[in-house]
TrEMBL record:
Entry-linked Gene3D superfamilies: 3.30.70.270, EAL domain (3.20.20.450), PAS domain (3.30.450.20)
PROSITE patterns given in the database record: EAL, GGDEF, PAS
SUPFAM superfamilies assigned to the protein according to its UniProt record, in alphabetical order: EAL domain-like, GAF domain-like, Nucleotide cyclase, PYP-like sensor domain (PAS domain)
InterPro entries documented for this protein: Biofilm_reg_signaling, Diguanyl_cyclase/Pdiesterase, EAL_dom, EAL_sf, GGDEF_dom, Nucleotide_cyclase, PAS, PAS-like_dom_sf
Swiss-Prot/TrEMBL GO biological process terms: regulation of DNA-templated transcription
Coiled coil spans: none
Name of this protein: C-di-GMP phosphodiesterase
Organism: Komagataeibacter xylinus
């Protein structure tokens, strides 16, 4: 017994009732109790409450059956000493029957391994963290793993990992066991520069930050002590705090602080990984200029909103800055970026906190209004536009931001994010077209337009590639002689599955989808090829007019392309006329004007199409190198009965005549219209009175047949219709 009494290891002997019979000096040192205080007591006094069931169940089973896997083996145990410290030890348990009655006794040999055990556990935890970070495991999950493992090291504790952001604000990254009220209190903390300096100088000052100021709150929530350390990143920045709170009322040794300090290095790596992944996420989901969500992220959010169950309603607003290009051109792109940031800040200030904001690209923004119906959505759009009127100072200039907005509603305007964004964008474009600085709400008609852009746009691109478009030609007749003046080339599209598509429909789609320039280039080449074919077949067509979009005339390569076509097909320039719209005439861009003059320098005709339907400027008309003006058919429909239409038509014909331009009138369908226009000295007429638009072969047949001669034509030809017929042939 003397040998057992003086052994350095703790030796405890208990009977079959778990009463302590022997408690040596090693046990006294380990537990802090004298032998007399323990002898005769149940061994439970040496075991913490949380571990009692782990002891009692195997002991009871062994007494009943004589079988116990724990007897004769070694295992790790955690117990609480007299001072409240948790000690880790290696327990070896043996059992024997002694005496004539064969009473069973247990001998427990306990070797304290706390320090060595904690070091090993910390090393294992560090390896686990590094392995987890090398996988796709979420940083949040890795942080939770760290906290739970540390709580297992020191029972009855709560571990937390706190981030410190660029603004010195605390964010609890992980704290599964931390009371919610305490976590909320920490989330409201913003450290001062002095606090950060103190943490840099002494990492243990972290306890002051997360505990000393909240001790009374912690005690009320069952927390009685705290060990904490600041976390310093590799660049020297204080990036976080790791803390361990105790629920024990008694004082514990310094081992919890050693555990916390041991966790700091790999917690630093964990935070660096978190910040790196967060940065990548920012780049993938956020606009770097404004901090708003980008277009990809907003589509993800819309898909989630669309998928929500129940009676779900929300609004999508698409905003576009009016004339933003002018700001870039006048002030430079740096100031333009500053303006966009200021606009984003203004938009954010006018939105409620739960609205979702996105910069969709360029000068476009998207706002999602959750749980919102149409009426409040339109009311908000009005307030937003009004709120943007206060000038913004950029580079010493005060600029008023004007925005146009489009609104789409879920579920009314589509079942998916693409439809909702598309309808809002279409409504916004309509607002910009009708009246900048206003908003429009998407309608079913917008839905049809969006479908056209999607379905027809794709089919049109395919048809262009396969050569499925064709040109029809409508004759233009000299008013006085009846001679053929030329033909206008008109695009036609017959799709094998969609059938005949009206030009007004597919041309609009081509403009919206950016294919209009490709159609114009194809029309020019096809018209030149057709002129050569007609010449070969003896069909003399004096000139062919081809419509081009406004975008063509901003391309400096257009004159060269036309010149190359004329050379390639061997066509005289005067046999080709290019038609422009009034939007081209009103374009102040120098490139546009240079292109127009370069086309005329080739001796190619230049015609103003649909004159009078837009915002014509007579002063600009005199500066353009035009060879002809075309009066729109809308003026001719009621020409005989509408005095206003007659007045405008008379004025346009007079202007054209005085400027030396040929005046062509479209939409002539009756002899009365012809007679009135001829009396007003209109030069050329085009319309169903003479011929409808025809395919090339049909035009050839029409060309070879006698044509309708009006009375004024007979008079001009000296009452000799046959001579006019001969001239035409």
């Amino acid at each position: 017994m003397t040998l057992l009494t003086d052994a350095t290891e703790a030796i405890i002997v208990t009977d079959d009732r778990n009463d302590v019979l022997f408690f040596n000096k090693g046990a006294e040192k380990l537990w802090g109790y004298a032998q007399d205080e323990v002898r005769g007591q149940n061994v439970r006094m040496l075991i913490p409450d949380f571990a009692c069931h782990e002891h009692d169940a195997p002991a009871a089973s062994h007494r009943a059956t004589g079988l116990d896997a724990t007897v004769g083996t070694s295992r790790e145990i955690i117990f609480e000493n007299r001072h409240g410290d948790y000690i880790t030890g290696e327990l070896t348990l043996s059992s024997s029957r002694v005496g004539p009655k064969g009473s069973r006794y247990y001998l427990a040999s306990i070797k304290a391994v706390t320090e060595e055990n904690h070091r090993k556990k910390l090393l294992d935890l560090q390896n686990t963290v590094f392995q987890s970070l090398s996988t796709e495991m979420q940083i949040q999950d890795v942080a939770d793993l760290v906290c739970r493992e540390v709580e297992n090291f020191i029972p009855n504790t709560v571990a937390i990992l706190v981030l410190i952001d660029e603004d010195h604000r605390l964010h609890v990254l992980s704290g599964p066991g931390l009371p919610r009220r305490y976590a909320a209190a920490l989330e409201n903390v913003t450290l001062s520069d002095a606090d950060i300096m103190a943490l840099s100088n002494d990492l243990d000052e972290a306890a002051t930050v997360v505990w000393e100021s909240y001790r009374s709150l912690g005690v009320s929530l069952g927390l009685h002590d705290c060990w904490a350390s600041a976390i310093k990143a590799s660049n020297g920045k204080i990036s976080g705090i790791f803390a361990l709170f105790s629920r024990n009322t008694s004082t514990i040794s310094d081992w919890p602080q050693k555990i916390v300090a041991g966790c700091v290095p790999f917690c630093s790596v964990l935070i660096e990984q978190y910040e790196a992944r967060h940065h990548i996420s920012q780049l993938a989901n956020y606009d770097p200029l404004t901090g708003f969500l980008n277009r990809t992220a907003i589509h993800k959010i819309l898909r989630n909103l669309v998928g929500k169950p129940g009676d779900n309603h929300f609004a999508v607003l698409m905003l576009n800055l009016d004339r933003f290009r002018d700001i870039n051109d006048a002030l430079g792109h740096t100031n333009g970026d500053d303006f966009l940031k200021a606009v984003a800040a203004r938009i954010k200030s006018l939105c409620r906190s739960h609205y979702i904001l996105s910069r969709a690209g360029g000068d476009e923004f998207v706002i999602i209004l959750p749980d919102t119906q149409a009426v409040p959505a339109t009311a908000f759009a009005g307030r937003l536009i009004k709120g943007m009127e206060e000038p913004i100072e950029i580079g010493g200039n005060f600029i008023t931001a004007s925005i146009s907005a489009g609104i789409s509603m879920f579920p009314e305007n589509g079942p998916d994010s693409e439809s909702l964004i598309g309808h809002a964008e279409a409504a916004m474009r309509l607002a910009k077209k009708d009246a900048r600085g206003t908003f429009r709400v998407a309608t079913p008609e917008d839905h049809t337009a969006a479908q056209d852009r999607l379905v027809l746009g794709s089919a049109l691109r395919d048809s262009l590639a396969k050569g499925l478009l064709n040109l029809h030609y409508q004759p233009q007749i000299e008013a006085k002689t009846g001679a053929l003046y030329g033909v206008e080339a008109l695009s036609r599209w017959h799709h094998p599955h969609l059938g005949n598509i009206f030009p007004s429909r597919f041309i609009a789609v081509a403009e919206d989808t950016g294919q209009i320039e490709a159609i114009g280039a194809w029309c020019l080449e096809e018209a030149c090829r057709q002129i050569v074919t007609w010449d070969r077949d003896g069909v003399m067509i004096p000139a062919v007019s081809v419509n081009l979009s406004a975008g063509h005339f901003r391309k400096r390569q257009l004159p060269e392309m036309i010149s190359n076509l004329l050379t390639r097909f061997g066509i005289a320039p005067a046999r080709l006329t290019v038609e422009i719209t009034e939007s081209v005439m009103m374009d102040e861009n120098k490139d546009t004007m240079d292109v127009l003059h370069a086309i005329r320098a080739l001796d190619v005709g230049l015609s103003m199409d649909d004159f009078g339907t837009g915002y014509s400027s007579l002063s600009r008309l005199t500066r353009l190198p035009l060879t002809e003006i075309k009066i729109d058919r809308s003026f001719i429909m009621n020409l005989e009965h509408d005095a206003n239409a007659q007045a405008v038509t008379t004025a346009v014909i007079g202007i054209g005549n005085r400027l030396g331009m040929t005046v062509v009138t479209e939409g002539v369908e009756t002899e009365a219209q012809y007679a009135l226009l001829e009396s007003l000295h209109c030069d050329v007429m085009q319309g169903y009175l003479f011929a409808k638009p025809m395919a090339p072969k049909d035009l050839e047949t029409w060309f070879r047949q006698p044509r309708k001669i009006m009375p004024a034509m007979r008079k001009a030809c000296g009452e000799q219709p046959a001579s006019a017929q001969a001239e035409k042939k």
